[in-house]
């Protein structure tokens, strides 16, 4: 998306005779009845469309009406993703105008159901499948993908699909959903996006035994066979699409996630793990939003209890440590405010592990041996742990639906009131997806805390009712508020790496977007309806930090624009304008297609 290659997707026009039908089937060209008459003639599409030309808006409204006739969320998923394969402009026009309605369809929670049923869906959106059988031929397989100007690759191996476990090749729905959000939120042209599902086997018996299963029927590969395929892919991506292609890792198992991120960062790839880094930035953003509510102490005065010590919560604990050090705490002091619980209970030094040692990521947050007695007292009883630790914020990302019981929330509320007085409010973040894996619902958090919880969730919940009958809607704390902006910012300025400072900048920009009205309505994050505006602001902050940190060259127009400008606010504004000019807009003048 650098200025030398405009984001507005120039379609590879096929003008030879008899190719009209092929052009009709190209979602980059086809706009249904809104396809320009001149273009129809030029591309042999006359007769394949009704005579009159309608405005794009009419086609969007028509599509909306048709999709609304679908009965279940999954039907709606299939209908709307079918539209994506048919016309990008209609699909993204529809999405951008109705993001609140369609995000729960193309993304969590419905995309989770779509993945679970992926093998039996007749109509599946497109992405590239690469299996162990393709080892040695990955470059040839990449050639099957029609776009040459790919700038962001979203890659999964299907091992940890949301909180639904190992779904193997059925995990394809996730990278497809993520690229769709990259376009809908950040305006990254679909041409620049490539979703890939690596099929390395699957350890879920139910998936393997499904007669319709589309993937390899074998145990998940580990070790050399796995490493070789990923390595070959990474080299092929670099060679085909260039060294600055952004690699977005998604929904890997925890060990591979940390290993691959470190390995390919070290090898100089521009790469980030969404579940680790973007989740961290959105969680920190929510904590920053929470501390703006009356009754919540400043970040540096809080204690944090993370329930779950995987990619999401370890990433959040790491970024939170940085944020606390920026607020005057030493790294040791910062870590002393953080407690992590995994399936064995509170993590502490010298704990007897069920298998192997504590991972280095967990070990960095292990409580000292002097806290061991608390862990031993609590065992795996969360409410006991809350009572003993006395946290201000309880952050769940363990895919244990319902883990924040009434007793847990009541104990937490009592603990913060004991510490900070009657008006104190605890933060309760139920980040696990999809909805059935959430630690508690918004209404439960509110009811069980006597109306005091500052709540956010990974999947959106409907509004919460107060006793007086009024309603409010807590915010959605999902990495979709971060990853599109990160990608836009990175590819806009050709960032060579995604540093922690860039993720902190993303987080600060996100929390800076939250309005007083949103806080009043109990949302500590910007509303999802503002996804596009948020992505641009996050993108500008990320790009700015990449430039400041020396991790991105500034060239051409942007260099000219920034020359002599020293104020950060003015620089952010210029970068934001620059990124906006690169964005794909379905409502562009149709002639731009040619
Ligand atoms: N809102 C958002 O934007 C995001 C939400 N998520 C969601 O968060 C959840 C977790 O994701 P992720 O961190 O990547 O998953 P991981 O598999 O990396 O980690 C899961 C963690 O949960 C722990 N755990 C499992 N069972 C229990 C239990 N009974 N008690 C306490 N801890 C337990 C595991 O313990 P152990 O280490 O001992 O195995 C592990 O530490 C998923 O539902 C995912 O959808 C993820 C990313 C973004
Ligand atoms: C949102 C997301 O990335 C997840 O739940 O894995
Ligand atoms: Mg994920």
Automatic annotation (TrEMBL):
<dbReference type="InterPro" id="IPR012302">
    <property type="entry name" value="Malic_NAD-bd"/>
</dbReference>
<feature type="binding site">
    <location>
        <position position="275"/>
    </location>
    <ligand>
        <name>a divalent metal cation</name>
    </ligand>
</feature>
<dbReference type="Pfam" id="PF00390">
    <property type="entry name" value="malic"/>
</dbReference>
<dbReference type="GO" id="GO:0046872">
    <property type="term" value="F:metal ion binding"/>
</dbReference>
<dbReference type="InterPro" id="IPR036291">
    <property type="entry name" value="NAD(P)-bd_dom_sf"/>
</dbReference>
<dbReference type="InterPro" id="IPR037062">
    <property type="entry name" value="Malic_N_dom_sf"/>
</dbReference>
<dbReference type="GO" id="GO:0004473">
    <property type="term" value="F:malate dehydrogenase (decarboxylating) (NADP+) activity"/>
</dbReference>
<feature type="region of interest" description="Disordered">
    <location>
        <begin position="1"/>
        <end position="27"/>
    </location>
</feature>
<feature type="binding site">
    <location>
        <position position="251"/>
    </location>
    <ligand>
        <name>a divalent metal cation</name>
    </ligand>
</feature>
<feature type="binding site">
    <location>
        <position position="478"/>
    </location>
    <ligand>
        <name>(S)-malate</name>
    </ligand>
</feature>
<dbReference type="InterPro" id="IPR046346">
    <property type="entry name" value="Aminoacid_DH-like_N_sf"/>
</dbReference>
<dbReference type="Pfam" id="PF03949">
    <property type="entry name" value="Malic_M"/>
</dbReference>
<dbReference type="GO" id="GO:0006108">
    <property type="term" value="P:malate metabolic process"/>
</dbReference>
<feature type="active site" description="Proton donor">
    <location>
        <position position="107"/>
    </location>
</feature>
<dbReference type="InterPro" id="IPR001891">
    <property type="entry name" value="Malic_OxRdtase"/>
</dbReference>
<comment type="similarity">
    <text>Belongs to the malic enzymes family.</text>
</comment>
<feature type="domain" description="Malic enzyme NAD-binding">
    <location>
        <begin position="276"/>
        <end position="547"/>
    </location>
</feature>
<protein>
    <recommendedName>
        <fullName>Malic enzyme</fullName>
    </recommendedName>
</protein>
<feature type="binding site">
    <location>
        <position position="250"/>
    </location>
    <ligand>
        <name>a divalent metal cation</name>
    </ligand>
</feature>
<dbReference type="InterPro" id="IPR012301">
    <property type="entry name" value="Malic_N_dom"/>
</dbReference>
<feature type="binding site">
    <location>
        <position position="433"/>
    </location>
    <ligand>
        <name>(S)-malate</name>
    </ligand>
</feature>
<feature type="domain" description="Malic enzyme N-terminal">
    <location>
        <begin position="84"/>
        <end position="265"/>
    </location>
</feature>
<feature type="active site" description="Proton acceptor">
    <location>
        <position position="178"/>
    </location>
</feature>
<dbReference type="GO" id="GO:0051287">
    <property type="term" value="F:NAD binding"/>
</dbReference>
<feature type="binding site">
    <location>
        <position position="160"/>
    </location>
    <ligand>
        <name>(S)-malate</name>
    </ligand>
</feature>
<keyword id="KW-0479">Metal-binding</keyword>
């Amino acid at each position: 998306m650098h200025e030398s290659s405009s984001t507005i997707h120039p379609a590879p026009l096929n003008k030879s005779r008899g190719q009209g039908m092929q052009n009709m089937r190209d979602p980059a060209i086809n706009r249904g009845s809104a396809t320009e008459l001149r273009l129809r003639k030029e591309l042999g599409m006359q007769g394949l469309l009704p005579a009159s030309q309608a405005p794009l808006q009419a086609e969007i409204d028509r599509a909306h009406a048709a999709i609304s006739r679908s009965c279940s969320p999954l039907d709606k998923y299939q209908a709307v993703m079918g539209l994506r394969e048919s016309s990008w402009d209609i699909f993204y026009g529809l999405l951008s105008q109705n993001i609140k309605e369609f995000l729960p369809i193309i993304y969590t929670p419905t995309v989770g159901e779509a993945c679970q049923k992926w093998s039996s869906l007749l109509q599946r959106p497109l992405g590239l499948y690469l299996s162990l059988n393709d080892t040695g031929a990955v470059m040839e397989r990449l050639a099957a993908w029609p776009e040459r100007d790919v700038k962001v690759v979203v890659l999964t191996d299907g091992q940890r699909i949301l909180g639904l476990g190992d779904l193997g090749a059925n995990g394809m729905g996730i990278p497809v959903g993520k690229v769709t959000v990259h376009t809908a939120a950040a305006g990254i042209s679909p041409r620049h996006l490539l979703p890939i599902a690596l099929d390395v086997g699957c350890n879920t018996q139910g998936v393997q035994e499904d007669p319709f299963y589309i993937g390899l029927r074998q145990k998940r590969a580990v070790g050399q066979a796995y490493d070789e395929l990923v390595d070959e892919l990474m080299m092929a991506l670099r060679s085909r699409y260039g060294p600055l292609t952004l690699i977005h890792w998604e929904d890997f198992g925890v060990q591979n996630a940390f290993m691959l991120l470190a390995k390919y960062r070290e090898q100089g790839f521009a790469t980030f793990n969404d579940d680790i880094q973007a989740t961290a930035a959105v969680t920190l953003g929510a904590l920053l939003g929470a501390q703006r509510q009356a009754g919540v102490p400043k970040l540096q005065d809080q204690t944090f209890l993370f329930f779950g010590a995987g990619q999401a919560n370890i990433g959040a604990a790491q970024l939170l440590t940085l944020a606390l050090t920026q607020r005057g705490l030493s790294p040791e002091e910062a870590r002393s405010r953080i407690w992590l619980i995994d399936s064995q209970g509170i993590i502490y030094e010298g704990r007897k592990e069920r298998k192997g040692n504590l991972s280095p990521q967990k070990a960095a947050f292990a409580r000292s041996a002097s806290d061991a007695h608390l862990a031993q007292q609590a065992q795996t009883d969360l409410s006991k742990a809350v009572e003993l630790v006395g946290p201000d914020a309880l952050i769940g990302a363990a895919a244990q639906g319902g883990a924040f019981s009434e007793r847990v929330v009541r104990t937490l509320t009592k603990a913060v009131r004991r510490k900070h007085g009657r008006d104190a409010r605890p933060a309760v973040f139920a980040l696990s997806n999809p909805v059935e894996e959430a630690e508690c619902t918004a209404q439960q958090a509110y009811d069980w805390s006597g109306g005091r919880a500052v709540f956010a969730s990974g999947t959106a919940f409907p509004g919460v009712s107060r006793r007086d009958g009024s309603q409010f809607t807590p915010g959605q704390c999902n990495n979709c508020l971060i990853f599109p902006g990160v990608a836009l910012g990175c590819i806009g300025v050709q960032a060579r790496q995604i540093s922690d400072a860039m993720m902190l900048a993303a987080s600060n920009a996100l929390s800076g977007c939250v309005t007083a009205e949103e806080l009043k309505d109990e949302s500590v994050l910007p509303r999802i309806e503002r996804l596009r505006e948020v992505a641009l602001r996050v993108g500008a902050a990320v790009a700015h930090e990449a430039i400041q940190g020396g991790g991105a060259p500034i060239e051409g127009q942007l260099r000219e624009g920034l020359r002599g400008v020293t104020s950060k606010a003015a620089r952010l504004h210029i970068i934001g304008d620059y990124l906006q000019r690169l964005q794909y807009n379905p409502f562009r003048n149709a002639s731009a297609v040619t």
